[in-house]
Amino acid sequence: MQAAASAHRLHLFSPFASPSLSQPLAKPCAIRVRNPAAATVRMALREDGPSVAVVGVTGAVGQEFLRVLSDRDFPYRDIRLLASRRSAGKRITFEDREYTVEELRPESFDGIDIALFSAGGSISKEFGPVAVERGTIVVDNSSAFRMVPEVPLVIPEVNPEAMSHIKLKGRSGKGALIANPNCSTIICLMAATPLHRHAKVVRMVVSTYQAASGAGAAAMEELVQQTREVLDGKEPTCNIFKKQYAFNLFSHNAAVLPNGYNEEEMKLVKETRKIWNDTNVKVTATCIRVPVMRAHAESVNLQFEKPMDEDTARQILEGAAGVVVIDDRDSNHFPTPLDVSSKDDVAVGRIRQDLSLDGNLGLDIFVCGDQIRKGAALNAIQIAEKLL
Ligand SMILES: NC(=O)c1ccc[n+]([C@@H]2O[C@H](COP(=O)([O-])OP(=O)(O)OC[C@H]3O[C@@H](n4cnc5c(N)ncnc54)[C@H](OP(=O)(O)O)[C@@H]3O)[C@@H](O)[C@H]2O)c1
Q1: Do 196 and 120 belong to one domain?
Q2: In testing the pocket of ligand 1, which one of 57, 125, 141 has its CB within 8 Å of the most ligand atoms?
Q3: pLDDT digits 0-9 by tens, 296-328
Q4: CATH of the domain at 77
Q5: For ligand 1, is residue 194 a contact (CB within 6 Å)?
Q6: What is the CATH number of the domain that holds 343?
Q7: Where are the alpha helices (DSSP H) in the chain?
Q8: Are residues 191 and 48 in the same domain?
Q9: What CA–CA distance (Å, rounded) separates 76 from 221?
Q10: 193 with 325, same domain?
Q11: In a domain, 357, yes or no
Q12: How many domains would you assign to the chain?
């Protein structure tokens, strides 16, 4: 299930592949993902496909939505590209057609079957219900609705049944909200769930190493800028994170709560329980920002109800959908953020028995996943595919 490696893909957010990071994103965006030769054979623009809107199309996740839609030949009748007033009028070339970005308004959802939202929680709270009222199924990337009991929180490889009652308007369904889990939660549970199904996780300890891309396009630009400034002996510009990020790391920038955890850590705790439909599973987390451009890494310690030896764990993970095992002890080769950047699969390695627990009841793993892709855009589009 790796994304097709298209020579035509434009890595707008990779400092290694594109000079565009050093420039503001406020410019016409050319998203030309499709291989032109393939386009003559397969057309994603289909009369019988749903009408799709992308909300927040100029952002890090919004841009990835377009890449993933194209990579997966998602069938759509038409597509509406929405962002703030600042971006209205910008042109985006997508699958050989030019579109104009429109300012998000309530009428933007007239006639829209599926809306992919990634414009932040407050926009989701304001416009999500407006879209639902107009019969649109909203797949939301923000945290706005994740913990609302009647809103399914879905990772398609993990709990697709949670959204089985939701149908498109044209299939005698109606408007609805579906929430995409937090990116760290998705990456963690892609690896932990196959093991959980086998031996039941009773406690999970997660430590994250989170990339700049998780904080959006502006944070990625700031990391590049700061890196240049530090190397040039200048004072680093700190607009997004309020402290030096280049050549440093720090506790996640999410708000710290009265219990001492930050919001990102509590998302891992609460969302795992909802997705696994298990209020008893014990989860604790420490979330850290590291100066990596794209893709999160996580160290995950699992305690099981039933024994789980490391060979069985490796076998289970090798057979798990959306997971790839990189676990070469001899050459000390394990997953890295660069291995998974712009890839669909979550990589797992360092699979080893937890020595501190007797009876093979504990396991340590190290997981890396592209959180703009599987942690956001890909997961949302997999959800949308389930509606087709
Ligand atoms: N980055 C990730 O890895 C990741 C992962 C999972 C979930 N998410 C969630 O996805 C959302 C977007 O994240 P991002 O990283 O893509 O952020 P981003 O790069 O900062 O992009 C934000 C997008 O929201 C749009 N927007 C802002 N204000 C708006 C308004 N008033 N009306 C309409 N559109 C507006 C922006 O449009 P303009 O360009 O016009 O300002 C831009 O397209 C957030 O809720 C975030 O928590 C992000």
Answers
A1: no
A2: 141
A3: 999 999 999 999 999 999 999 999 999 999 999
A4: 3.40.50.720
A5: no
A6: 3.30.360.10
A7: 36-39, 60-71, 121-133, 183-199, 217-231, 263-276, 310-318, 337-340, 378-386
A8: no
A9: 32
A10: yes
A11: yes
A12: 2
Q: Please check whether residue 344 lies inside any domain of the structure.
A: yes
pLDDT at 187: 98
Residue 5 has a pLDDT of 33
With a cut of 70, which residues of the chain have pLDDT below it?
A: 1-44
Q: Do both 197 and 262 map to the same domain?
A: yes
Condensed to tens digits (0 to 9), the pLDDT of residues 326-341 reads 999 999 999 999 999 9
Indicate which atom in ligand 1 lies nearest the CA of residue 26.
39
Which residues fall within 8 angstroms of residue 149, CB to CB, at 6 or more apart? none
Per the structure, the complete domain to which residue 274 belongs is given by 184-371
Give me the catalytic one of 29, 287, 296, 368: 296
Quick one: pLDDT at residue 171?
80
The answer as to whether 171 is a domain residue is: no
Asked if 369 and 338 count as a contact pair (C-beta separation under 8 A), the reply is no
Q: Rounded to the nearest whole angstrom, what is the distance from the C-alpha of residue 56 to the centroid of ligand 1?
A: 5
Residue 208 has a pLDDT of 98
Considering the domain architecture, whether residues 193 and 98 belong to the same structural domain is answered as no
53 touches 80 (CB < 8 A): yes
Tell me, what's the pLDDT at 169? 85
Report how far ligand 1's centroid is from the alpha carbon of 368 (Å). 23
Of the candidates 34, 19, 178, 31, the residue with the CA atom closest to the CA atom of residue 91: 31
252 is catalytic: no
Which of 100, 118, 241 has most ligand 1 atoms within 8 Å of its beta carbon, as the pocket-test mutant? 118
Task: Find the 322 Cα to ligand 1 centroid distance in Å.
Answer: 25
Phi, psi dihedrals of residue 228, rounded to the nearest 5°: -60, -45
